[in-house]
Structure formats: C-alpha cells, structure tokens
Design goal:
Blueprint: H1 2-18, H2 28-36, H3 42-46, H4 64-69, H5 93-105, H6 108-113, H7 128-178, E1 183-191, E2 205-214, E3 235-237, E4 242-249, E5 274-275, E6 287-289, E7 300-302, E8 304-308, E9 314-316, E10 334-341, E11 356-361, E12 367-371
Parallel strand pairs: 5-10
Antiparallel strand pairs: 1-2, 1-8, 2-3, 2-4, 4-10, 6-7, 8-9, 10-11, 11-12
C-alpha cells in the first residue's frame, strides 16, 4: 500500500508540473504608475481618489500630472512597507531606483509636465529689437551689392546677344551649303520702348534678324542692275525672327591693333564692311517680312543684310556692281557686326565698357566674338 501510494503521489505531482501554469494577473494602471514613479509613492497614490480623476476629462484613469507632482514622502503607517509588483520582486531597491531615474531622464516626467500649468516655460525666440536689427543688416547688404548684380545682369545680356548673333549666322551658312542655295541674314533695329508695331518703328534698343533663302537656288537679283530689286516674292523663310532687346548697332570708332585675340587687339575692319548704325550703305536688294507672292504689306524691311553663297562665302549686302562693272561690295576678308548695350531706347552718351564685336570671314564664314 505504501509503495502504491508513493507512485500515485509521484504521478500526481508530475501531472501538476506538466499542467499549464496560470498567467500572472496584469495590473495595467498600477504598472503604469510604477514605471513612471519611485516604488515608494505607489501606495500613497492608490489610496488617494484624486489620482484617478484626470483634470477636465471626467474619465477614469491615473491622473499622471498630479501623481508626478506629489512629494516622495509616504503617509504615516506606510514607511518601510514598499509595494512591489510581480515584475519588481527579486530586484534590489538600488536597481529599481536606477530604473526609475532612467525613465525620468528618457522623458516620462517631462511628458507629464507639459500638461502641468505650473511647469510651462515661455517659448524661446527673437525679440522685436533683434528682428529689426537683422532686417536692417540684410537691407544694408542688398543696397551695397545691388550694383554688382546689375553689372552681372548686363554682362549676361551682352554675352547672350553675341552668341545669338553667332547662332543666326551659323544657321544661314549651314542652310546655304546644305541646300546648295543662296541665303541672307537681314538686320533691322526698332524702338524697344514699345511692342513691335506693324509696320515697325525704326529706333534704338531692339535688334531684329531674319534668315531667308532662295526658292530655286539662284542668286535671284541681277548684279548689273543698280536699281532697287526687292527679293521678297522669291524667298522662303528659314526659322522665326530673332529679336534681342537692349542692344544698339554700333559702327566701331576704336582702332584695334590687329595683333591679338582680345577686343583691343582684334583685326581692324574697314567701315564699309562694318554693320552698325552708320555703315554700310543700304542694300539695293532688300527684302521684307513676312514673305509671299504677291508681296504682303511688310512689317520689317531689311536694308542691311549678309549674303551666304552655296560655297559658304559671306558677303556684306550683295554682289552688285557699279557703272564701271566693279562690285560695290566685293568678297571681303573680314566683316564685323558691332553692338553696344542700352537701357531702353536711348543711345549711350559715351561708349559703354561692355561693347562687343562679332567678326566673320568672307571665305568659310568663320565667326569670332570679341568683348571689351
């Protein structure tokens, strides 16, 4: 009997050991407070009904701001009797205290303090005087550097104008060679102070350029005829008009040395081959814009032009001959388009410091840009 009883007791104990153990009871509200407060305060909090009435809400739950603001002193009769949760059993008081300090440093208490009116601090920021000082310094700097920005803007405008002219000349030469025909680039200056009118108002400040080409590949006009020969009805338009604001055609009055590659040392070009405000003489083979047959009313009439042959040769105006049979504008070694920047429609009283010249050769039509 004793042996059988011993075996049954052993089996019973084995079954109990293998049986699933009940889960520990969770105390969410108490655990919440213990994670945020020293262990010694929990008992006094649980015995205070005010701790379970959040301010202004009417809902049940721990009043965290009030709990965190309480003193660490325990009520009478609770000294030496800390309340330990199942999680904190077996841990020393020093270990628990370190955990509470760590939680406080990580922002637990500071999070609650945001809701405590007594702990609110005024937000940091600029005073009105500091703001006015900063704005004044910024305004002073803008006044000092404004001329520099104006100079940079003018420089960019002049550079863009020079490369626009170069692009137009290259396009006309390429079209003439690729299509085995004659092409022309016409130049017209109008008043920049008003929008482009129809017909255009000659003036200062806006350069208008047009590329046209012969329909049948011929030169169109009669070189021996000295009378005006309008080419409008026998031309086709190549691309759109190119317009450049705030520039003025300028016949150069300087005397470059011709010894280098800068503006002051570029090659000197004779006046009849300089396309500017006073030179050359008007072409005897002008053309208008827009084109058509019969010729429509012209908005622009181009009296200054550059002719490109199927071989890529560039010639100012045309190749008409005079009464003696000599060409009025024979194929030149070099020609030049001079421009100076303007502000509006007024011609500068003196030559500005950032004038530029676009030079192109007669044979090959090679284009170079020189800027002062």
């Amino acid at each position: 009997m004793s042996g059988g009883s011993g075996h049954r007791l052993q089996r019973n104990w084995s079954r109990r050991a293998l049986a699933p153990q009940p889960k520990p009871v969770q105390y969410p509200k108490i655990s919440f407070l213990r994670n945020c407060l020293p262990a010694g305060q929990v008992s006094s909090i649980l015995r205070s009904p005010q701790m379970f009435a959040p301010l202004g809400t009417g809902r049940l739950g721990p009043n965290a701001p009030r709990a965190c603001a309480m003193s660490r002193a325990l009520p009478r009769g609770f000294t030496g009797q800390p309340s330990l949760s199942p999680v904190s059993k077996g841990r020393s008081a020093d270990s628990r205290e370190r955990d509470h300090r760590s939680l406080a440093q990580r922002g637990c208490v500071s999070t609650f303090q945001r809701f405590n009116v007594s702990t609110l601090q005024p937000p940091a920021g600029f005073t009105l005087l500091e703001l006015l000082i900063v704005v004044g310094i910024i305004g002073l700097l803008l006044v000092l550097i404004a001329p520099a920005f104006t100079t940079i803007k003018d420089g960019w405008g002049v550079t863009n104008a020079a490369y626009t002219i170069k692009g137009v000349l290259d396009t006309a030469r390429t079209y003439a060679k690729a299509n085995n025909t004659y092409a022309w680039v016409g130049l017209f200056e109008e008043d920049v102070s008003q929008p482009s009118t129809n017909p255009a108002t000659p003036g200062t400040g806006r350069l208008v350029m047009s590329i046209v080409a012969s329909k049948d590949g011929s030169i169109i006009y009669d070189p021996t005829n000295l009378a005006q020969q309008d080419l409008t009805t026998r031309l086709i338009q190549v691309g759109k008009l190119a317009k450049i604001d705030n520039v003025h055609l300028w016949t150069h009055t300087d005397s470059p040395s011709g010894t280098g590659s800068t503006f002051a040392t570029r090659r000197n070009v004779a006046g009849i081959y300089c396309i500017g405000d006073t030179t050359p003489a008007n072409s005897t083979t002008p053309f208008g814009y827009p084109l058509g047959n019969p010729a429509p009313a012209a908005q622009y009439t181009f009296l200054k032009a550059i002719q490109f042959s199927p071989r890529g040769e560039a010639q100012v105006n045309n190749s008409t001959v005079n009464a003696s049979g000599a060409e009025r504008f024979p194929l030149q070694t070099l020609a030049e388009i001079g421009l100076e920047p303007t502000h509006g429609s007024s011609v500068p009283a003196s030559i500005p410091g950032n004038v530029f010249a676009v030079q192109f050769t007669g044979i090959g039509s090679n284009v170079g840009i020189y800027r002062q």
